[in-house]
Amino acid sequence: MNKREAKKGREKGGFSVFKKTASRSQHLATKIGVYIALITFLGMIALWIMTSVFTANMIRTNISNQMIDAAKARALIIENYVSDAEDYLKSFSLGNAVRNVLTNKNNPVALAIAQQYTLESAAAKPIFEGLYIADTNTVPLTHITESVVGKPTRTGQRLMEFQNTMMKTHSITNVGIMESPATGNMVISMYYPLFDDADMCIGYVGAAVYADQIMDVISDLPLEGLPSATYTLLNANNGVYLYHHNASLLNTEAKTENCQWVMEQIKEGGASGSHESSDGVFSIYTNLSTRGWAFMVEGSSNEIFSDVRMVRVITAFVFVLMAGLIVFVSMLQLRNVGTSLLTLEYSIRRLGKLQLAHDEYLDKYRTRNDEVGKIATSTISLTDTLEATISDINRVLGSIAKGDLTVDVRKNNHL
Question: Taking the model in full, what pTM does it have?
Answer without folding.
Answer: 0.61
